[in-house]
User: Which sequence fits this backbone?
């Protein structure tokens, strides 16, 4: 089993200078905590670089290596490039793998990957191996094709969904990798060798037949068919290779399109945000204008009590004046000529009494009540003015208006920030690139379709060729006892061996599928919190479907469920693989709720003997990890920020 | 087949699977050549694999 013992980094990504991390020698889990942008993914990539000389970015695309060296070291000290060292044990031997990426001699200011040179060396038990030995040994320790089962992140886990999609381009590649880790290549390689051996035997058989007068004609025809087969096989291989390349290109373009669709969605979102901000700004301006008017009389709030007292006094005076005015009106009616009764009490009024009233009213110059009328009007005006002052100076209403403006301004600020984030994400996007990508994708899809048709025709021609060859072989086989008898026996043995291995592949593959299904189900039941799920069912491509306890399939699953299923598959593959190694996983809990996180944490030690988990604390709090793993937690490390471009690896001690 | 029988089959190694098929369906093939072929293909990047396979076959079919 492969076990990592130490990782040494020199100016790799944010890991400035020389830094290292030691992995425990006993079985268990190591957790490395780091917040976003501290270098968790860089650690995963450092291990990938050490083994394969590659670094993957978003969308599983290779990252330009010249961008990976520590930026601070390059800026401050003009030190470019980086180095990764990996100590490990495998099959009883100690290995040290060191891979470097350094500027070419004479290059002082390297600009791109071409200005650098990559090199590596491998030691086994202290002895440096030759280039050829190193290559073979590394291929044996960890073939790149199966690295996805040892080094992975959430993005890679999501890809396993493609195993359930018949027409997916990624699915067959993952299936191949699964068969590789399960040890199928030894069978398929033997089958392919035997197919080649059979064809060589057939060729020799044909040549032998050409040398005999009785069988020369058959031999010539057979040799012609065999030549045609060689041409067709070469065509087939080329077409398959081209198709594979086109499918990979299609996957890349689809990923780019998906990204661009996201960009288009970002453009739309930006427009909406800008419109929202405009509306909010108008609303704020209106509110501020209203508030300005109200603020002009805000001083009145200080005199509120006095004004209310004045209103009370004025209302009393208004009542007095109204009484006087009513009385004056009654007297005026009484004094009118021809009036014989009092308009108030309807009693008869004597002429003497009327005269007295008329004299009394005349004393006011015929304008009795005019002063009171003026005063009551003035009093009412003052009451109205005071009431308006009190109303305008309502401090509660002012506060509400202020709060509303503050809320609007907060929204404007938040939406402005969202726009800034979007701008940062779309800074490098240009519309022409979007159009080109779409056109390239359409072109690739057409090419794939044409190539698939071509492949169909080549396969058909190969099939026909095989039928003609079989007929000729049967005819030739009737000539017993001739000199080519021995070649026929060789051909027959190679053919029987080929048939034996073809049958073995079918049986062993089915057996592996059942084992993987059973083990993945065991992991899944340990990981899921849904009691109605009975297990997983495997398809021919090793895709796993969740099965309800009533036997029905669960057709659609969330990203979180996808991760659980993928982790179950990875665990099952580790159980069944001849080649076993560590699991190093970056942020696997991001899509899981607390219950599933706890269950996954608890299951980690059963998935591989050595597990290294890179997480941020909100994803998996240290207390939660310690409670879930107990004695299986062997080491904790933290990525400590020194600057935006400098992270330090430190053992965690809290 | 019983559960035990299923499990037994499921737990067969790769060479067990081939030996069972050889014995049942290809008894005329020598057991050793199957093992030798597996051994040859267990190591990656053997440049002389084709020649080695031919020699195995020649050795069992006479000159």
Assistant:
């Amino acid at each position: 089993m492969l076990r990592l013992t130490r990782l040494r980094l020199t100016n790799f990504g944010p890991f400035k200078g020389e830094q290292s991390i030691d992995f425990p020698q006993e079985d268990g889990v190591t957790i490395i905590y780091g917040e976003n942008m501290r270098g968790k993914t860089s650690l995963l990539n450092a291990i990938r670089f050490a083994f394969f000389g590659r670094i993957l970015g978003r969308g599983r695309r290779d990252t330009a290596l010249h961008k990976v060296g520590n930026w601070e070291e390059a800026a401050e000290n003009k030190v470019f490039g980086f180095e990764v060292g990996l100590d490990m044990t495998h099959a009883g031997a100690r290995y040290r793998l060191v891979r470097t990426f350094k500027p070419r001699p004479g290059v002082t200011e390297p600009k791109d990957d071409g200005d650098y040179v990559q090199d590596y060396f491998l030691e086994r038990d202290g002895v440096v191996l030759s280039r050829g030995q190193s290559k073979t040994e590394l291929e044996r320790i960890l073939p790149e094709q199966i690295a996805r089962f040892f080094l992975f992140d959430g993005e890679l886990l999501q890809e396993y969904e493609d195993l359930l999609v018949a027409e997916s381009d990624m699915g067959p590649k993952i299936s191949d990798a699964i068969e590789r880790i399960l040890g199928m290549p030894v069978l398929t390689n033997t089958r392919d060798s035997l197919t080649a051996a059979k064809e060589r035997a057939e060729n020799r058989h044909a040549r032998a037949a050409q040398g005999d007068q009785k069988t020369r004609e058959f031999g010539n025809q057979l040799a012609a068919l065999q030549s045609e087969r060689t041409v067709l096989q070469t065509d087939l291989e080329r077409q398959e290779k081209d198709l594979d390349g086109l499918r990979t290109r299609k996957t890349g373009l689809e990923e780019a399109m998906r990204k661009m669709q996201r960009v288009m969605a970002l453009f739309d979102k930006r427009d909406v945000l800008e419109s929202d901000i405009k509306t909010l700004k108008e609303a704020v301006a209106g509110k501020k204008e209203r508030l300005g008017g109200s603020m002009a009389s805000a001083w009145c709030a200080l005199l509120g009590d006095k004004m209310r007292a004045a209103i009370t006094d004025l209302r009393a005076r208004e009542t007095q004046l109204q009484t006087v005015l009513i009385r004056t009106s009654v007297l005026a009616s009484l004094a009118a000529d021809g009036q014989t009764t009092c308009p108030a009490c309807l009693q008869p009024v004597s002429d003497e009494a009327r005269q007295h009233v008329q004299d009394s009213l005349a004393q006011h110059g015929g304008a009795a009540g005019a002063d009171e009328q003026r005063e009551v009007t003035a009093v009412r005006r003052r009451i109205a003015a005071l009431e308006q002052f009190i109303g305008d100076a309502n401090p509660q209403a002012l506060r509400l208006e202020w709060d509303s403006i503050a809320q609007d301004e907060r929204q404007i600020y938040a939406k402005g920030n969202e726009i800034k984030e979007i701008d940062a994400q779309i800074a490098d996007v240009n519309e022409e690139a979007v159009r080109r990508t779409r056109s390239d994708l359409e072109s690739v899809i057409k090419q794939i379709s044409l190539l698939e048709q071509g492949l169909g025709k080549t396969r058909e021609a190969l099939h026909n060729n095989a039928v003609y060859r079989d007929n000729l072989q049967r005819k030739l086989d009737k000539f017993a006892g001739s000199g080519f008898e021995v070649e026929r026996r060789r051909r027959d043995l190679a053919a029987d061996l080929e048939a034996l291995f073809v049958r073995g592949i079918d049986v062993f593959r089915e057996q592996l599928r059942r084992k993987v299904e059973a083990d993945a189900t065991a992991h899944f039941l340990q990981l899921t919190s849904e009691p109605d799920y009975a297990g997983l069912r495997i398809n021919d491509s090793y895709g796993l479907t969740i099965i309800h306890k009533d036997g029905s399939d669960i057709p659609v699953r969330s990203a979180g469920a996808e991760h659980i299923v993928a982790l179950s598959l990875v665990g099952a593959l580790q159980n069944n693989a001849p080649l076993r190694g560590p699991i190093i996983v970056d942020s696997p809990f991001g899509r899981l709720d607390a219950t599933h996180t706890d269950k996954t944490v608890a299951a980690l030690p059963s998935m591989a003997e050595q597990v290294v988990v890179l997480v941020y604390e909100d994803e998996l709090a240290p207390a939660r990890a310690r409670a879930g793993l107990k004695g299986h937690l062997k080491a904790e490390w933290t990525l400590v920020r020194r600057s935006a471009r400098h992270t330090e690896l430190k053992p965690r001690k809290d | 087949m019983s559960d035990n029988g299923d499990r037994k089959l499921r737990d067969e190694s790769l060479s067990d699977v081939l030996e069972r098929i050889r014995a049942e369906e290809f008894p005329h093939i020598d057991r050793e050549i199957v093992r030798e072929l597996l051994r040859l293909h267990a190591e990656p990047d053997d440049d002389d694999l084709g020649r080695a396979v031919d020699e195995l076959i020649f050795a069992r079919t006479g000159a």
